[in-house]
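Notes to self after the call with IL:
- keep both proteins in one doc
- input above output, always
- annotate only the second one for now

Protein 1:
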Amino acid sequence: MTAQTTGSTLVDYDDAVRRYDPVLGIEVHVELGTRTKMFDGAPQSFGAEPNTQITPVSLGLPGALPAVNGTAVEYAIRIGLALNCTIAASCRFARKNYFYPDVPKNFQTSQYDEPIAAEGWVDVELADGTTFRVEIERAHMEEDAGKNVHIGGEGGRIHGAEYSLVDYNRAGVPLVEIVTKPIAGAGDRAPEVARAYVQTLRDMFRALGVSEARMERGNVRADVNVSLRPSPDAPLGTRTETKNVNSFRAVERAVRYEICRQAALLDAGQAVVQETRHWHEDNGTTSPGRIKSDAEDYRYFPEPDLVPIVPSREWVEQIRAALPELPAARRRRLATEWGYADAEMRDVVNAGAIELIASTVAAGATPAAARKWWMGELARTAKDREVELEALPITPTQIGALQQLVDDGTLTDKLARQVLEGVLAGEGDPAQVVAARGLAVVSDNGPLLEAIDAALAAQPDIAAKIRGGNLGPVGAIIGAVMKATRGQADAARVRELVVQRVTEG
């Protein structure tokens, strides 16, 4: 069974994973949140004017010598420990030689045969609660490249561009690259495993305090390697590497697409080319980049301008002892504190709502109320808008304030949903929306009694039944009052006043 997608013939996914065994390899780059760059004192901050955060070292000017950022080394050790890696007693930097305009030195300072951390693992939790262990080959330090800006081309790509510019602000920003061992055994869940792994790392980086880890800013980027083989016992197939995938959804889609594409090639008796590929978010496809280089092509050799890094065992153990609570342990603790069942907590995690709910609880809402808003109205809104929950234009503080208005009787749940719509529409904080739309509950007995009297007068037969002790029809009177007050009455209070009015009458 095949399907046509953007001109390429793809094998149906279920068919592909039934006949081929997918093997993954994922390289995750995280920009470290240090004040200055990896090897010089240039500041780093997002969004600065192009080529304003540079020094002679950033530009690779003759005679400019690098010096290692100690904070970046500490952050790298934190990451290595959190990934259950062994921290090297001694490691060193190397020159990775390649020639692109965004690398002003014509080489990248990285680590090759002596990384700072190696031989680790991390357990990732899938949507149904299943745990899958991903083995880590290494985590090493390096510097980021600059950024090519292509002018006049479609989608910012070089094809069709009139000219290109280079912004070196990012050149030299400290990175840690985490490389997995081949990830085998995932079968038809390979795309889900890839997504969960990258999300686990993103959450870990934030918990460790080493990076803002904002994927939309490129703080975290994944290179996704995919290969197919006829069976788990066969040798590894030829891999492709889809570069710089920067969202969880895109990671999952890229793996799925490559499995279907490579299966079609193999079915046709064609060879999979070892190459880098570009991810296209708009249509969910990949396209060829360049033939993938092997390590020897980069002509690695030890960096002569930097001495080896020799972290003392005492320092490493101090860093280990100071590690914060990691996300998996925190999730277990919060589930207990919040009183969430396992399935409820899993839904919260899968929706990316755990931090939003935690912040909403910190803003004064109960865990039950926070979950109700984020997993109910807001989750539906995010789905309708096709965005992540955290991308909605509303904050946990605003949700806490909204729930407080419900708790103090200013709003009913129905009115609160209208206020929520106003906040999402950019009309201000909950209190401002209530004032602007006139949505507060009518709590003055005077207007309520007027509405009740009008409803009773309009329906004397119902009034008689209530007076005779039959409270069943009272709902009709409440409904009329709610209509008259545009839903701004408290139904429980209206019921009390109806019974009181009829009894007194």
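Protein 2 (the one to annotate):
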Amino acid sequence: MSRLTIYFTSDTHGYLYNTTFADTLPKPVGMLGMEFPKDGNTLIVDGGDTIQGSPLTYFLHEKHRRQIMADVMNGKGYDYITLGNHDFNYGPGWLSEFLNGLEAVCLCANVEDLTGTLPIRKWEIRTMANGLRIGLFGIVTHWVNVWEKKENLKTLRITPPVPAAHEAVRALQEAGCDKIIGIYHGGMEKDLKTGERLTETDENEACRLCEELPIDLLLTGHQHIPFAGKMWHGTHLVQTPCYGKSYVRVEMDDEGNFSSQLFTPSAEQTWTEEETAVRADLESWLDSPVGHLSRDLWPGDRLQMALHGSEIADFFNRVQLWATGADVSCTALPNECRGFSRNVTVRDVVASYIYPNTLCVLKITGKDMREALERCATYFTVDAQGGIRISESFLKPKEEHYNYDFFAGIKYAFDLSRPCGSRVIRIERNGQPVNDGDEMTLCMCDYRATGAGQFPMWKACRHEKDVLTEISELILQYFAEHAMIDIPPLSTMETYLGTRRL
């Protein structure tokens, strides 16, 4: 019999129901299909990114509906949560509504609410029914400060997580806890098999936490890499995937050793009256018609889209140029993108552009453009047989297809036989070569404008203007103003392997 059982979820992004939102068929996803049998020696914990990131959360926010995420978590018996970077996306009011509706305790040692109104604690000691004293603390990646809109953080101070974790663990040790558990909305910066460092940034610092602190169990998130039963420097590690695809059960035996396992939610769900009503209203809204295309726009193979262009990305860029009047536009596709049927519905839009991004217009040079395209060209690698593959750096430690950008307003060519850093062989705009000193305006999402995704050149560029309407809403507006939208053929990029066009 276990002395302690912990159920852990993270990065659910509002995936409560048994749907991926692409259709209405029941899927084995969603918090409402998870089972957490509970007694006095059980804790239920969430690692953040809960209240943004799905058509459901978009629907609730845009239609000014009451959140139900806290209700669901209360019904499941959650004890503790921490905050994820996306929990700040809709501003302090939306976050406050969620936290004040929760019965669970929010632990986040490196987030300070300057108003003193949000129920956030740094750590807590929980005495279980069998007498075990469990110390828990929470932390979130401080890269929130890089990505988030400044107005959403005006009343918050977010500090680096490692010093905050040191303070929390020291306090829990002095209190004489039997076990110390960290809830970290962040992931691994090293390969857990080889120890090889995977990134030079401090966005993810789980390995450092394990190396510097006597944490018995670290519940991690943010990277969306599902694993259980891993160890690093004596700390037991777990992580869930995103979108409620699975959850983790951790058990501690009489000797104090941890074991853990991933579980898949049931596709069968039972809903309350309110959950039933919200789901019905959501589906009705998702199936609302918004416009028409000359043909379907379905996503293709990731590699082929990167090599030859993407019609969906072209369409996103078309909307961005329409909304901003910029000379050039860039956009990326999420890891999971539904695509558009010819007769477009709201479902097509919000399940294809899933982020709450707004738009920035930057004044850039041809040199900036070349550097950004060289970064995009690192998406490809060439094997010994001359085959083109997606670079491991975009696949591990997590898939980052959303960091490959597609451009409109220029034509460009890559030669993949060349080493990274010298693959861009042509950039043209209006039929003329783009030189390093040429200036132009470029629109992109606010996330990319921070330099995120290893595009540091954008952070240094001058801001011309912002369009603060969310891009998904701009897409809906574009359909409202264009009764029939013609989809032209792709023509912006070429890719070569030596002299052979791919």
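Annotation: Residues 289-501 form a domain with the 5'-nucleotidase;  domain 2 fold (CATH 3.90.780.10). Residues 161-174 form the longest helix (14 residues).
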